[in-house]
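Key idea: predict the complex, not the pieces.
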Amino acid sequence: MKKKYALFILIISILFLCIFFLFKKEKQYDDTFLYFDTLIEVKYKGKKDYKKEIEELFLHYHNLTTRYEEYGNNVYGILHNKDESETLELNPDLYEMLEYAQSFKEKSDGKYNIELGCVFQLWKDAKEKETIPSIEELQACENHPLILLGNNKILNNHPNLDLGSFAKGYAVQKLGEFFQEKEVKDYLINAGGNVLVGTPSNKTYYRVGIQNPDNSDLLKILNVKEKAVVTSGGYERFYEYDGVKYHHIIDPGTLFPAKTMKSVTVIASDSGLADILSTTLFLMTEEEGEKFLKDYSDVDAIWVTNENEVITTKGVSNYE
Amino acid sequence: MNKWDKTLLGICLLLGGILLFYPKKGNTVEVYRNNSLVLSVPLSQNQIYEVDGKLGVVQIVVQDNGVMVEKETSPKHYCSKQGFIYHANEMIVCLPNELVIKIVGNSNIDAVVK
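Result:
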């Protein structure tokens, strides 16, 4: 009789242990990373610590897209390629990025352009020296087009690429996809104005504030889940020369910083897409932008024009 | 209404009053070096502070309910490039100097885009 009793207790304990391991409590992880010249906060609830994997993912995309470090067949490699072969074979992940970004050049009538690396570099150098580049210098830039040939190959015509306008958003999207794959549902990734969220476990929505370009207040607070919210603005990263402010978003038409908007915020399901669209809309008038957005049904935008007019697409009210 | 009812009502009103007029704690700027708190100051008070980082002095400016790094001893000036932060849950991280500056307080905002 006693033996039976002991067996019963044993079975019950094993059962409890099984249940314990099956429903192991999810832990909250808060990590910060420094890539793409940006502080990236990653918060998630999961059963496992993914710090190492996240670090690897950011480092991979950072190294592929940065212009300054040597890392095999990355953007730096394209810029400094001296060999005269007809084609160049790229890292497949970089090729995929270029293909994605390049598809927006045509769609945006050339407003979104990653081939202006030389122009962007002149502006970056000018900022360091607190001066501005001359229009002659800017026009002298040879902006060789990026020609994609398939099978990870591009034409070796020395294109000067700058992926700064979407590398961060693209990497954040890849991390979101990693979390989905690992069944981590509750996450928030904040890469300096480039936010991607999953579904919060303790409330219905994440609340994402949009900074007012003119003061310390918030322009709006959005209730979102499984969305990316990205702002492009000229009011944070700028410098002054001769009493004029110059920011970092260059209009391919004028080769000077764009002048119509103070900030544009895009809400979309894909963080890479949101990053590209916020830059593109920043370079357009509001009318052009609204027309352009017609092709993107689940994308919404908030414009703050230079005249301080706040314009939103109809769908924005769903998030307020 | 008997004596006890009145007492109870009185206590409720008193408690309500205390809760209503209890001074709301404003947001605080906290600076950490290697995860240990080195500075904790109110966000509402305009002032300039200096904190020792790993590479040298880091100058932190609290102004108009915001905080930023004005000067720093570091190769790429990542910290001052991050500009002002204004809201609880926002932070500035200065990796070369091993400093984290954050605003602590009540916030119903999870992230701010700018």
